[in-house]
Amino acid sequence: MSNYAYRDIERKIVLYSSQAIKEDRNETFYCPNPKCKAKLYICAIEGSKSAYFRATKPMYKHILNCPFGTSSSEFDKNKFDESEFVFNNAIDGLLVVTGNPKKEKKIDGHSIGEPRAHPLRTIKQIYSMCKSMPANLKYGDKEIGEMLLDDRSEYRYPRGCFGKKIIEAAVKGKLYDNKKKEIYLVAPMYSQKYSFILSFFDEITYKTIRSEIYNNRDKIIVVAGEWKSSGIYNITRIYGRKQVAIGK
To answer: Are residues 20 and 92 in the same domain?
Structure first.
């Protein structure tokens, strides 16, 4: 499912699901993923707060691992405070050493009023937000394409991936090196133009993430990092579990 789609196959005329009207119901739209040939249709306009685009025709389904064919691109902007979101600060919050997850505190039920919206914090929240909007639009202080390297924004990275970014990656070939405590990925998902190294200083974190990626090596791998280039590879240090997520 997707919050937006394109009216034309060149993907220049965008339509958001929130802007769709009854007349759009029988129209054909195109997947936001430039590598995907899925034809989308608007669903749930009448009596629904959340219309969305979906590939309903068996002959025009999403390609394998297309993030717009899963719930990865679902994002409810009303739950978060965009005015307080600063991308670099959010990434800094992920690049921290994390130990064993703490037990969640129980809510005693005596709080008054609705929970206050907060800025995006987790890698899954930021990734879903980025996939819910075109790469040239802005959320908070940056354009989507400046935050996320995927097949839509690849043209912005002619020399590789540098600085604080999230990548939408895949497994190709050799996955890891136990002696170096490194994991190897490629991105973007479909062009696989760049090679990436996840470098670990902590063996427990390395083994945990290695196993999770290995067990989901046919899926989308999302990584937040502060990337540097070695000439061939783009490298980031992985400090904890918060930096890596598996796409749905």
So the answer is: no
Residue-level pLDDT at 41: 92
- Residue 139's Cβ-side half-sphere holds a number of Cα atoms within 13 Å equal to 27
By residue range, what is the domain housing residue 41? 4-66
> Do 85 and 47 have their domain in common?
no
What does the pLDDT read at residue 153?
A: 95
| Bridge-based pairing state of the strands 194-200 and 233-238 | parallel
* The Cα angle at residue 139 between residues 35 and 67, in degrees rounded to 5: 25
The pLDDT value recorded for residue 112 is 52
Residue 233 lies in a domain: yes
What residues form DSSP beta bridges with 195?
186, 233
Tell me, yes or no, whether 211 and 135 share the same domain: yes
Q: How far apart are CA 13 and CA 109, in angstroms?
A: 47
Q: Which residues of the chain have pLDDT under 70?
A: 45-49, 99-115
CATH number of residue 239's parent domain:
2.40.50
Q: What is the 3-state secondary structure (H, E, C) of 194-216?
A: EEEEEEECCHHHHHHHHHHHHHC
The string of DSSP letters for 97-129 reads ---SPPPPPPP-S---SPPPPB---SHHHHHHH
Place of tokens 């068996």: 58
What's the rounded Cα separation, in Å, for the pair 47 and 54? 18
Q: What tokens appear for 220 in the block?
A: 């989308």
